[in-house]
Design a protein that fits this description.
With about 150 residues, the protein is mainly α. The chain contains nine helices and two strands, in the order ααααααααββα. Keywords: Membrane, Transmembrane, Transmembrane helix.
């Protein structure tokens, strides 16, 4: 079933990269994103790391993470979300790619620094720091769009 709602496609892509592409009718691209999601998820131990992070066992999460694989995840994840949004046909905002690009970049930086970055005495680990970086990147991108649209 095809929909005109870019919000729906963004939310499906957040839930699982590739689903937004399937909704857009891009079956091959959707299957590629799904395959990449599964490969990176399995190779980086992402599901185990998510569970450990939610339980607060950050040290074990860090030791369980395969960072060589997890480094790919932020860019694939955000690109799949952006692609589903862009292909939905509802993109009329100039520079709308900026929140996605900055989120992917900062999310990757978050993965790099996640084994050592602390706020106070709290180690954030491979899940919480990249998530904070994702949201920070989206906010920075939206602020830049606001500034640039005033010019």
């Amino acid at each position: 079933m095809k929909t005109d709602s870019h919000i729906e496609k963004i939310l499906w892509s957040i839930a699982f990269p590739g689903f937004g592409q399937l909704l857009n009718g891009d079956l091959v691209k959707g299957m590629v994103f799904i395959a990449l999601e599964l490969i990176i998820n399995i190779k980086s131990n992402l599901n185990k790391v998510i569970v450990l992070s939610f339980y607060g066992d950050i040290e074990t999460a860090i030791n369980t993470t395969d960072y060589q694989w997890l480094m790919f995840y932020p860019c694939i994840y955000i690109f799949a979300i952006w692609d589903a949004y862009k292909k939905s046909g509802d993109d009329e905002i100039k520079y709308s790619f900026l929140p996605f690009v900055i989120s992917a970049y900062l999310g990757t930086i978050g993965v790099i620094y996640s084994p050592t970055f602390k706020i106070g005495n709290i180690l954030l680990g491979p899940i919480w720091l990249p998530i904070i970086c994702f949201f920070s990147g989206a906010l920075i991108g939206m602020i830049i769009i606001k500034i640039m649209s005033k010019k």
